[in-house]
User: Fold this.
Amino acid sequence: MRHAETLPDWPSGPLPAVRVAAAIPSPEQHRTPCSRHETGSPHRAAR
Assistant:
């Protein structure tokens, strides 16, 4: 790890505009396994 007194000499201008074309997996596909994992885990407290 390097500790410096000043910030690096990186460009500090505005970031370019971006467009998200797709999410893989889709939010719906991602939520299903997550919700099963949360409810079936013995390490999670009951809600």
Observations:
- The chain has one helix and no strands.
- The mean pLDDT is 76.
